[in-house]
Predict the 3D structure of the following.
Amino acid sequence: MSQYQVSRLLRDIARDSEIARRCHTELPAVLKNYDLDEAEKDAVKNWSVRALFDMGVNPLLLLTSSMAMGTDIRAYTAALNEKR
Amino acid sequence: MGEIVIGIAASHAPNLANPSMLRGTDEQQVGRIKAGFAKARTLLEEARPDAIVIFSSDHFDRCFFDNLPPFLVAVGDSAEGPINEYLRIPKVKVSIDAGLGRFLVSEGLENGVDFASSADLPLDHAEVVPLSFLTPNWDIPIVPIVVNAFAPPMPSLKRCAQVGAFVRETVERWPQRKRVAVLGTGGLSHWVGLPEMGRVNAEFDRWFMDTLAAGQHSDIIARYKKAEELDAVAGNGGQEVRDWLAAAGAMPPSLKAQVLTYEPLPGCGIGVMAWTRN
């Protein structure tokens, strides 16, 4: 686990719309800048809100990065409350 | 010597400044919120401040886990923002009263308040949203003081009120004869990015505002000594009441508080209050 690295990626997505865009179009290249394990890469690749939340990412950071990635707030809440 | 001439505390929910995010919201509630901000703007204009010290929050767009000060003072000449684009709030540029900012930092370091400082601090919606209602011409210099209210461990409510009191004392010994407003922005109850997102605790919010208006902020501090206790009733977003307590701590006894509006919007309790001479 490298929660700090996941958080750093989410921070960059929230701060920089170009990185958010590149996450949709060239994610492997973006991920080279972050030291993530396979589970973390999968959570980002699938933008699995629940998995990222369960990793302990700060919920504010998770919400803002999700909004930057284009996730609708209702979809975000639904994903967060889906059964584990 | 400087003088604190007015205090305002207000929520800064980004949807207040983005009509598309307000779609579907009760128009009467929104109208009452805007009326509250309009009243606060009138009071602010009547107080004729030369500068506004703003206790506000960060949302990981200026501070992060690699560098996380409890209190960060802007000391550059100006600031632009909001930095994040996804909120679709128009960007603005506002002058900073850097002289006051630097005086607060240097006096703090000599007198037990270890402020961090930034010569290039962007604005966040925490400042831009309330200022868009209060100073829509962006013509009053500001001094943002960013309070860590989202990344535990955070400064205690007691410490926030103490820092507010320190700001008042420091303004009052500032060699410049300037009129200073204090704005605290954030809250009220809301659960940000959590499974409970959408929840609001209007009972807590009303108690909080009434207690603050009665000058009893020590009661709030005594009841919520730990962040977890506040989390339970006001959510992680409710941690931003730190900014209200800092503003309350900065108020001289000559200013009296009044609640201007409160509306439990879906997702966030929205309040506005002011401390004035009358």
Remarks:
- The radius of gyration of chain A is 12 Å.
